[in-house]
Write a structure and sequence with these properties.
The chain contains 16 helices and 23 strands. It is of the alpha/beta class. A hairpin with a 2-residue loop joins β14 and β15. The longest helix has 26 residues.
């Protein structure tokens, strides 16, 4: 079966090389000589087949399981999900009678050559294309094949955009400038007279990593949201380049600013989730529930007004209450349900002129999330019971790299970078040592400061965004005050061991948190350098993330 799949992949790649060498409008932009292209393709074939075979052998072919979903309904072809080797799906869909429009629904992109091939098929067949939600990377290439290109109103304006960047290696994520000219040529051909070389050069070549992106939004519904380019996924929004004089139409991304109204198939509609958990139970009587909250938790008019105004919030809203106190926190009109959930907890944690307090979210977009805390706590109990000390000291190379790196202070930017192997005055835990400590009667307080986790180590408390730091002294001082207030609740005994972790040895947030806790007087500060990546590599149990504290 594996060999058969490899042959299919190999044939697909060789067919693609044939398409790239055809005398089309794009051929003059192909790189190098024919021999050079063949050598380049041979190397690419080897890398691709080996990588796919490795994935299939070790992981049950996840590349195939997470391919695009493509569905035909009447004249519409709907496509969503990551772009892999999906050409045959599109060929079959385009062969259906009456098909004239392709709708891309929230696709993060993926395989470059699949994007180019499908984009050219769309152009050759003179099909229309529509973006519903986000269409990024290889998806944007396919979208640009449309003879008519528009945005849809299926999702909120700020979640509707086309994202463009250059090629990068799928495994190492390193930028691959050799392939940019062909992408450049495809965009130029399809954008026509509106093609803007300055903007496209920025998008395709000004890249520090695979997270670089030019975002172009739906100007009809969000005219003030200008296109902007960030050269890295770590570039702060204020440091990104804005193109205030342009929009999707003037840049040739769309052919009309009028949006296309689309009725998405049920399978393409977003399942409501918060922190990876599906929202299932709605609040049966919202009015009665809010009255109960107001009566039970509000001691003043300001609090009662927050509660009474809650029903009037239109988009992505959440309400949180203190674990053991009065007051509420509400957040609304956030970009995602997750951000509303976290925003409500944050506003409940930090009330002006009052000490910090732990809070729990109650409702998100009409869904009851109170059960998250009970099931989350139960998952930690079970994970700790299942935890066994692994045989090796280290996993996922957590002990390597960073020998020449020092933490001379808090990292305020470029958090995604190799961390030091040691921190002055901080105990560095390996995976085996941490697992043994968590199983001991005197287990440390384990604190997760990862900014976007949906899973947790067994027994870990979450201090969301607790690893941030800021250049401006006043901003950092205000953050540290919030951090200190929440730490007093999560780890009230400063003499007890406390261990911080985040995603991996390549993320500085846990370094920042450990250094900050040491500064605040915690006497036994620990750091699990490998983080959740090393824990997973050791095949150790995980639990649901449970959030009662948000630092920023």
């Amino acid at each position: 079966m594996i060999i058969k799949l490899a042959i299919i992949v190999l044939n697909s790649i060789l067919k693609d090389d044939f398409l790239r060498s055809k005398k089309t409008d794009y051929s003059r932009f192909d790189l190098g000589t024919t021999a050079g292209r063949r050598a380049d393709t041979a190397a690419f074939v080897c890398r691709r087949v080996v990588a796919i075979l490795a994935l299939m052998v070790s992981c049950g072919a996840p590349g195939l399981a997470h391919a695009m979903t493509v569905e035909v309904q009447g004249r519409f072809v709907f496509a969503t999900g990551p772009v892999v080797d999906d050409v045959l799906k599109f060929e079959e869909a385009f062969a259906k009678p009456g098909v004239d429009t392709v709708v891309f629904v929230n696709s993060p992109g993926g395989d470059l050559w699949t994007g180019l091939r499908v984009g050219r098929m769309i152009a050759d067949k003179k099909l229309k294309t529509v973006t519903a939600g986000s269409c990024v990377s290889a998806c944007s290439i396919m979208f640009m094949g449309g003879v008519e290109r528009t945005f849809s109103d299926a999702f909120r304006p700020n979640a509707t955009f086309v994202g463009i960047h250059g090629a990068h290696d799928a495994i190492t994520k390193s930028v691959d400038p050799i392939r940019q000219p062909q992408i450049f040529a495809f965009y130029k051909h399809n954008m026509g007279e509106r093609f803007n070389a300055e903007v496209m050069n920025k998008a395709l070549y000004d890249m520090e990593d695979a997270g670089s992106l030019l975002r172009v939004f739906d100007a009809a519904r969000s005219p003030k949201r200008v296109p902007y380019h960030c050269k890295s996924n770590q570039t702060l929004r204020g440091a990104c380049t804005e193109f205030a004089a342009h929009d999707a139409l003037t840049l040739g991304i769309v052919t009309s600013n009028a949006f296309t109204s689309i009725d998405l198939p049920q399978a393409f509609k977003l399942i409501p989730r918060v922190l990876g958990q599906e929202l299932l139970a709605t609040v049966s009587d919202p009015t009665a529930y809010l009255q109960t909250v107001s009566d039970s938790y509000c001691a003043g008019d300001a609090c009662r007004k927050l509660v009474s105004d809650f029903n009037g919030i239109r988009f992505n809203k959440a309400l949180a209450i203190p674990v053991d106190n009065k007051g509420v926190g509400t957040a609304g009109n956030r970009n995602t349900p997750d951000l509303a959930f976290l925003g409500a907890i944050y506003l409940c944690n930090h009330i002006r002129d009052q000490p910090a307090r732990l809070c729990e979210a109650q409702v998100v977009n009409g869904y009851d999330v109170r059960g998250f805390y009970a099931t989350g706590t139960a998952s930690h109990v079970q994970a700790l019971a299942d935890l066994k000390v692994p045989p090796e000291k280290f996993y996922a190379n957590e002990e390597y790299g960073g020998a020449m790196t020092r933490a001379d202070g808090l990292r305020t930017s470029k958090y995604n970078d190799i961390t030091p192997q040691k921190l002055d005055g901080v105990r560095v835990y390996g995976t085996q040592e941490l697992a043994a400590a968590l199983k001991s009667p005197s287990a440390p307080v384990l604190i997760d400061v990862l900014a976007a986790a949906v899973e947790s180590l067994p027994g870990a408390l979450t201090l969301r965004n607790g690893g941030l730091a800021f250049d401006a002294p006043a901003t950092d001082a205000a953050f540290e005050s919030r951090f200190a207030g929440l730490m007093k609740l999560l780890a009230p005994d400063p003499t007890r061991p406390v261990v911080f972790y985040c995603a991996s040895r390549d993320l500085w947030m846990s370094v920042n948190a450990a250094l900050r806790a040491k500064k605040l007087g915690y006497t036994q500060v620990g750091w699990y350098r490998g983080g959740i990546d090393s824990w997973k590599a050791a095949n150790l149990p995980l639990a649901s993330v449970v959030i009662r504290a948000v630092a920023n």
